[in-house]
Amino acid sequence: MSSQEDFEFRGTAREWFGIWIVNLLLSVLTLGIYSAWAKVRSKKYFYQNTWVAGRNFDYHATGKQILIGRLIVIGALLVYALASAFAPPLALVIIIAVLLCMPILIVRSAKFNARNSSWGNVRFNFDGETGDAYRVYMGIPILVALSLYTTFPFLERAIQRFAINGHSLGKTRFHFNSTIGPFYKAFLVAAVFGVLGFLGFGLYVIPSFIDLAGASDLDAQRKIIATMTVGYIFLLITVSLGGFIYMTMLRNLVYAATTLGAKQHGFRSALSVGSMLWLALTNALAVICTLGLMLPWAQVRMHRYLAQKTTLLPNGTLEEFTGEIISDTNAIGDAYSDIEGIDLDIAL
Known about the structure:
The chain is built from 11 helices and 11 strands.
């Protein structure tokens, strides 16, 4: 790699607070209808203030498009609610139908989000096949379940491969290639925390139940409730910590295994587990202590850190890299902004 370009977030908490509070108030006043436009404003702000190599990202969907997708989902939920009340067998059929259609919805959502996103006026695209989505999201999970989830890293790698290989910038494709080792490393770290959590919960709670077995007085019941509460808090903390570490490690390894174009322009994510944990904890405390008013500050703080720890590694001169992307635009243009789609907010 002959150079590197760090990502940068140029937004401020003050600017974002102004947008956030207006979005919140209008969404409440319109009984949630404005939330579709609020989502677009939010995405545009964070996209447009994220820069790399002298160009920023942008989001092109409209509130109308998001609202249509949400109305479809609300309509489906209403049909399901009516079926549950008056025809339970039909409700079961609806659930099965939705599950069978989920891979299709995932592909539609990925296309919608990609085609309404751009970098330097060049649109992204997603052309993953529905058949591959069924294999990844329905076929492989069955095999993983049969293995008692010991092969979960293979599912995670398959999901990342499907998502990344299906995306392109202009006509320049992304490519994902990784061995299974790093996925198992992240999985085992998370599994250790999970096992410790359940083991600690059992060792703390079960003896208390044995000691208080058969007791019916109020003091014994209070001790059981207190023991269960402490046990569940410990379990929640350890499992959450394991999941947090897993997601941090996963982001780093996925970026390292992703390239763009035939020249294999690379990426790097250098998140630190300690820093991420500190950010998450202090952000949570700030939001809780201010009853939510510091949420915009916490969001900007986290987004800025993620951007600062992300790097583009062009394989060649920067001018050559950007010229290649722009020249490959072709038909990936403004027409996509008018495509109605479903935005499920699914992170592939």
